[in-house]
């Protein structure tokens, strides 16, 4: 046995010596002639000297890669791809493979029974038999790999990336760290989570083409909205991960802004409008495509990639592009088609800069987050009787989830209330009013919408210090009771009251211990809607087939007039027509309300326009609303919401539903009377099968059964309304109810 072992050891030493001689000859041939040695259809492409292993890649794969690189276009590459160039090495690192068997083939290049790991140095993992090597490759390298486009980036222990030297040991020697090789660039990343984030950053930037993957990255996705096509980048709906943001959920917001611009385009033509934050340019493209010669559209963005996408989208929609960059190069490029001769001006500037330099009739601000940083610039050069619209997406601060941020951005103290969405709209309008007043301009609020993802405010600009003072006087503080949710704006004047609780209609301060009210604001205390403007917006929505905006505009018109939807009409007006079941006012002078042809005709024209503008106002709607669930009675079934609106209307109060809250009721009734009517027409939960109707107190006569049936027939069931067992929250503070 000893002799056999000695003979076997001598045979292994002889084989190792022969392999070393062959390796020296191959290295000499490679250095002298520079040719690649071919053996059985396999090409030697890379050597790992740490374990004396020749790493070989099949010749067919290398030919495919070389062919793919030859077919790459030599022209200018797209901005969203990372094209392969001659500077990149054409051979991939051995740690990047498609299948586990490919790693095993690298180890099979050695003819010995014991084979080393192709991704570990000899001092870390010694040569072993095939079954043990398979387990090692599978458990150590393959399971912790990072996958991308069918390739696996396995962890590598070769001396490719030295780490920091050990402070305890010798300072001159450095350890070898485990790492990953990026498939797209030449970076080496130590941790797997960091490698995943590194690849995701490449994808978010559109760099999805590797230096050796021959398949080009897919083209940008094309999204169609309102007959307008736009290209969007990957992760277009995540603003932190893309340069060109596009959110499909904001379609309703874009339609409302388009309707407002269409109404302004009827008043005077042509108008200069600015989309200060273009991103993909879809909003400006919709303006130019549908309103055509009525508008002169300027789309601005400070990001180079966004400007490139905007130009491509203009060509995609057969629009002419007039470039006006910050450097001053004016260059006109024409789209392929000649069907649409409209021209869109594309600028690359900071939004504050372009609004300081030029004047516009219509400005829309839609930054990521708050828009307070751009209000001063917007009101600086906006023309008289022009419109400024702004979309605020910082709903976490406006909806009182981050109250300190609201105080920092808007200078307002707010808490979470049942009417928090309307409170957010009034906070934004107060900031707009202060910015306009600093430029000696007043505002008229045309529209205020607060939904789940955004707060939209549209205001008309009225030039002059008198209008500025009138608007500034409407910014007041709000006294809010945290027990019963009663609220009232503080009285005008600078005198300090001895007991501000006396202004509240409720008596919670006398019956509850401690301080029960909080001072919120400063807020906008005026109207949130202009009824005439909303009716014309509804006409524009019907004209341009904006289906998503029509139901909301109908609700806004009813809310502005504080009228139930069933009674929405314009009685006594001869100029009216019915659109989609709703009577819409179409006055002959509506399109001429603010028309000032050519240059402004002096003070008389402005005064006449202001008078016509005031004529559009109806009785101002009540401020804020009540939530019927918040003020329900324990153990009682509430009436259906439409029935409850009818009962409040019969009691002599103005009522309407509100878009801020599907279960909200906007009314001028005090909270005590609101609760009285709600209790009167609620039914006990234990009265199974009992018809809905008022709760009759002792001594009252019950109405006839036929009358109750007639009422039920008049108001059908409303699925969004109440009618279920209500849970009372009257004995808890407001912030508990809101949570």
UniProtKB/TrEMBL annotation:
GO MF annotation, one:
tRNA (guanine) methyltransferase activity
What reaction does this enzyme carry out catalytically? guanosine(27) in tRNA(Tyr) + 2 S-adenosyl-L-methionine = N(2)-dimethylguanosine(27) in tRNA(Tyr) + 2 S-adenosyl-L-homocysteine + 2 H(+)
InterPro entries per the record? Answer: SAM-dependent_MTases_sf, Trm1, tRNA_met_Trm1_C, Znf_C2H2_type
Pfam families in the cross-refs: TRM
Gene3D superfamilies hit by this protein:
N2,N2-dimethylguanosine tRNA methyltransferase, C-terminal domain (3.30.56.70), Vaccinia Virus protein VP39 (3.40.50.150)
Give the protein name, as stated in the record.
tRNA (guanine(27)-N(2))-dimethyltransferase
Sequence segments annotated as region (Disordered): 1-91, 691-739
A biological process from GO: tRNA N2-guanine methylation
* Keyword terms, alphabetized: Isopeptide bond, Metal-binding, Methyltransferase, Nucleus, Phosphoprotein, RNA-binding, S-adenosyl-L-methionine, Transferase, tRNA processing, tRNA-binding, Ubl conjugation, Zinc, Zinc-finger
- Basic and acidic residues composition-biased segments: 56-67
Q: Which organism is it from?
A: Grallaria varia
List the biased-composition ranges (Polar residues).
721-731
Domain named C2H2-type: which ranges?
182-202
Q: Where does the protein end up? A: Nucleus, Nucleolus
Family membership noted in the UniProt record: Belongs to the class I-like SAM-binding methyltransferase superfamily. Trm1 family.
| Location (main, coarse) | nucleus
Q: List compositional bias (Acidic residues) regions by residue number.
A: 709-720
Tell whether Calcium is among the UniProt keywords: no
Report if keyword Translocase is assigned. no
- GO CC entries: nucleolus
């Amino acid at each position: 046995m000893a002799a056999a072992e000695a003979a076997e050891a001598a045979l292994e030493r002889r084989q190792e010596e022969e392999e070393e001689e062959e390796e020296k000859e191959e290295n000499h041939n490679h250095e002298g002639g520079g040719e690649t040695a071919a053996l059985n259809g396999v090409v030697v492409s890379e050597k790992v000297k740490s374990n004396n292993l020749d790493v070989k890649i099949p010749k067919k794969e290398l030919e495919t890669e070389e062919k793919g690189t030859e077919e790459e276009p030599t022209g200018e590459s797209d901005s969203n791809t990372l094209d392969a160039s001659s500077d990149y090495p054409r051979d991939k690192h051995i740690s990047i493979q498609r299948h586990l068997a490919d790693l095993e083939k690298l180890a099979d290049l050695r003819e010995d029974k014991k084979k080393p790991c192709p991704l570990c140095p000899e001092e870390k993992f010694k040569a072993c038999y095939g079954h043990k090597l398979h387990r090692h490759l599978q458990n150590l390298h393959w399971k912790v790999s990072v996958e991308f486009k069918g390739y696996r980036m396995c962890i590598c222990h070769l001396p490719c990336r030295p780490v920091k030297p050990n402070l305890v040991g010798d300072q001159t020697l450095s350890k070898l760290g485990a790492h990953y090789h990026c498939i797209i660039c030449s970076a080496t990343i130590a941790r797997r989570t960091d490698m995943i984030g590194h690849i995701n950053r490449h994808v978010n930037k559109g760099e999805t083409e590797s230096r050796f993957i021959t398949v080009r990255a897919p083209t940008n996705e094309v999204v169609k909205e309102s007959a307008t096509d736009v290209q969007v980048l990957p992760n277009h709906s995540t603003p932190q991960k893309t340069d060109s943001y596009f959110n499909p959920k904001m379609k309703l917001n874009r339609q409302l802004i388009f309707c407002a611009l269409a109404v302004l385009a009827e008043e005077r033509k042509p108008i200069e409008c600015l989309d200060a934050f273009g991103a993909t340019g879809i909003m400006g493209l919709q303006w130019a495509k549908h309103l055509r010669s009525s508008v002169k559209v300027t789309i601005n963005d400070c990001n180079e990639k966004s400007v490139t996408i905007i130009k491509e989208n203009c060509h995609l929609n057969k629009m002419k592009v007039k470039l006006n960059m910050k450097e001053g190069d004016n260059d006109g490029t024409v789209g392929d088609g000649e069907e649409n001769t409209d021209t869109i001006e594309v600028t690359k500037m900071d939004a504050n800069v372009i609004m300081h330099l030029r004047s516009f009739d219509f400005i829309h601000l839609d930054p990521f987050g708050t828009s307070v940083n751009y209000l001063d610039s917007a009101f600086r050069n906006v023309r008289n009787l022009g419109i400024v619209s702004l979309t605020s997406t910082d709903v976490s601060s406006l909806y009182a989830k981050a109250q300190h941020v609201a105080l920092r951005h808007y200078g307002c103290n707010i808490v979470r209330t049942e009417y928090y969405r309307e409170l957010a709209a009034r906070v934004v309008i107060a900031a707009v009013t202060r910015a306009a007043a600093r430029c000696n301009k007043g505002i008229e609020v045309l529209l205020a919408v607060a939904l789940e993802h955004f707060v939209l405010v549209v205001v008309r600009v009225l030039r002059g210090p008198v209008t500025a003072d009138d608007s500034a006087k409407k910014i007041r503080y709000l006294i809010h009771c945290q027990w019963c949710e009663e609220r009232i704006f503080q009285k005008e004047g600078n005198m300090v009251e001895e007991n501000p609780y006396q202004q509240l209609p409720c008596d919670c301060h006398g019956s509850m211990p401690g301080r029960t009210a909080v001072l919120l604001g400063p807020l906008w205390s005026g109207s949130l809607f202009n009824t005439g403007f909303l009716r014309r917006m509804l006409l524009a929505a019907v004209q341009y087939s904006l289906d998503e905006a029509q139901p909301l505009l109908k609700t806004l018109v009813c809310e502005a007039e504080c009228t139930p939807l069933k009674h929405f009409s314009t009685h006594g007006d001869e100029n009216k027509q019915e659109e989609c079941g709703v009577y819409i006012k179409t006055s002959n002078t509506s399109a001429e309300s603010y028309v000032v042809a050519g240059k402004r005709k002096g003070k008389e024209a402005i005064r006449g326009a202001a008078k016509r503008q005031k004529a559009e106002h109806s009785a101002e709607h009540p401020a804020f609303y009540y939530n019927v669930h918040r003020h329900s009675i324990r153990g009682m079934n509430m009436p259906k919401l439409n029935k409850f609106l009818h009962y409040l209307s019969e009691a002599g109060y103005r009522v309407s539903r509100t878009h801020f809250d599907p279960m909200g009721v906007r009314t001028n009734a005090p909270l005590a009377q609101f609760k009285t009517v709600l209790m009167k027409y609620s039914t006990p939960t234990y009265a199974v099968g009992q018809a809905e109707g008022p709760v009759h107190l002792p001594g009252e006569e019950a109405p006839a059964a036929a009358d109750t049936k007639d009422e039920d027939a008049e108001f059908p069931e409303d699925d969004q309304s109440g009618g279920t067992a209500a849970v009372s929250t009257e004995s808890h503070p407001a912030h508990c109810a809101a949570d």
